[in-house]
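Teaching note: in complex prediction, the entire set of molecules is handled at once rather than each chain in isolation. The prompt given to students was simply: 'Predict the structure of this complex.' The entities are:
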Amino acid sequence: MMPLMQKLKRFLLSRNTVISLICAVGISCLVGSTIPQITTKSPQFFETWKASSPRLYYLIDFLQLNQVYTSAWFLILIAIIALSLAYSVYYQLKGLTKSKGPAQREITERAFKDFFTLTLVQGSRIRGQRSEVRVEELALRIKSIFRARGYRLYLAAEESRYFLFGKNRAGRWGSAIFHLGLLICILAALYGLAFQKRGFIQLKQADTFQGKNEDWPAKSLGAFAGNFDLGFQVYLNKFTPSYWENDQIRNLESSLTITDSKGEAWKFLLSPAGPIRFQGIKVYQSTHYGYAIGFILKKEGSEEILTDFLLDAQRKKDKPLEGKMDFPTTDYILNMKFYPNLIEPSFYATLPGVDLAVTEKEKQRFKGRVLFSQRARLNNNDSLKFVRIYYWTGLTFVKNCGMPLVYCGFALSTLGAFLIFMLPYKQVYLKVTEEGNNVQISMGGRSNRYKALFSEEFKELAEDLEKELGKHGNDSVT
Amino acid sequence: METIQLLKYEVIFHWIALFFYLFSTISFIRHVTFKHEKSLKVGLRLALIGLIPHTIALGIRWYAVGHGPYLQQMESFSSTVWVSMVMFLVCVYKVPRLKSIGFVILPCCLAMMILGIISNPWVSDQLAQTLDHGRLEKGIYARTGVAKVPPTFCGIWFVIHITFTVIAVGAILISLGTAIFYLLKKKKGENEFYKKLPPLEALDAYSYKYAGFGFISWTIMVVSGALWAEQSWGRYWGWDPIETWSLITLLLFGIYLHLRRFFKWQGEKAAWFIVVCVIFAIATLFIIPFVMTTVHSQYFL
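The expected output is the structure of the full assembly:
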């Protein structure tokens, strides 16, 4: 068992595996954005494709390339990445928390020598005549030089003969934090795939949505989400669209009354900028809206049938709302072009009318303009009366308990990326030795990023030290 | 002052800035091609002076249309150029040895500026029609082709999303500039002109540093965009083409950074990889919205 785990660990942490996994996700995304996906194209599109090139279609369908992001192989890929990240984060954090840090190290000559055996970016030696310069005074000056350049003293030992300065120590955590953030994001996404509940409704003004699982006209549920019962009712009191001077939508506002299971009513104002949260469910104002226009069909010898037709608003407010729909329980097909204001193009219903064409089994029964409250007489003695106009609006309901995880993952990955690239960890080691009348300073340093740039900074530090030593020592500095 | 009058001034200032950037570009090209030292100073000064009318133009537009310069093609291009120019000038102020990278950045900025001005409806046919026929009754916004803010364009995440998009472009352009000069210096290292540039290792490190900064900005852009989408539409990721291509670019930067770290891909290989990353970034921001149906193209008018 152990060798297998060891092998798995080695595989998941291998550099080649990491690069291959990133490449695999990138290629999957490229495939997903170039091959038409079933979530973005209509079933008719795929039927046409299947008919025109069946072999290619079957191959793509078999490999699930037309549903990349929900395919089994993509989910397996993501699971492997999550596992690789988990291992990586675990070992990184273990390494970071286990190391005692320079301040806690045993301060001995040998330990200090060990530091010098680490990757030395740049080395330099500075010598000065000791004369009246005491080592203690020199130590103070060294500290001030480093402090001026943003370095902190992590360690001073053996009567100020050894120093360890460091900068951006938090930068060491960057990689671990970034990868932890990514891992959390992936886990949150997988949680969403499993448990997220999402439903969309089109609600007419003065209408109630009961919130039962079977009432949703469109919903998408996670694999283990079960039913989506809201547990409350939603009533649309009023919907108010407003427009800019150039006819673009300015705002959409829904006044809702939500009644919970105990019968208590709550009033809310919903807009795209301000979703509302009620009993763990977030409600979003959709940008889909329009008019619901109602007709009463009077058939000879039968009861009147009242039906509302939901027409989508156009992007510009002066455009008529169009729709072609069946009249339920009949063979009539209504082709409508609704003008909220027949005098002046506007979205607001001041003088509404509809250009109506009614066909029955491909025979035209009526064609003409019907004003509000007027009756259209069909040529088979039936009639349609234009009786009501309401606004309707789309509302989206989402329950995703994984959102805090998403926020947390995003915050950590951003913080991690910042720490990695903006705060590279730098260390400079100094050793002060006295040889006869001379004081000798040996320097070494390292950085975990941008080594060439650190090397330049290191040289500048050495120059500063030379100047300082030259200023206070009475002899020239070599 | 009337909005229409303000927009007229905005266009004039944009043109003035464009000419400064054009001459600055010519100076940088002269500097690198003919090794003309004086042209470097001239190019930098022209770029700096061009920033003044550009700032005024953006300020006027912001004031006149009532929203930041991020909604329409011309606004996006113009603000991206402005941020890239500021970042370039700050960069060369901090590291004067990198002045020559203007040879790469200025032409990119100039191209974006030209695309921005061409895509301004005011500059194109609407202006001519409006002025010729005096169709004042249509309303100033219709005549000038100004887009107004849709209801979903609000909130702090949206502001962060936009800000870091343009910052990411600026950082990536600087990284590209240093990478290209790395390649040039490597090829013509014996030339006196290239000896004045930072050493190859330093150029490589600067390219890495700015790629890293671009990576952070791009990450923040993607993250804030996701959070904005969650606030507006109730989903933080929808595999929209722009989202997907942003992720592809981010992954490409991830590959670059991993290759550098683990496979010691430095120097020439890394420089060429940065060129590929920049091509993907440019494609994501400025080509995909036009060739694929995306929620972004709905607003990137």
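Point out the following to students. The two ends of chain A are 62 Å apart (CA to CA). The domain at 102-168+424-472 of chain A is CATH 3.30.310.80 (TATA-Binding Protein).
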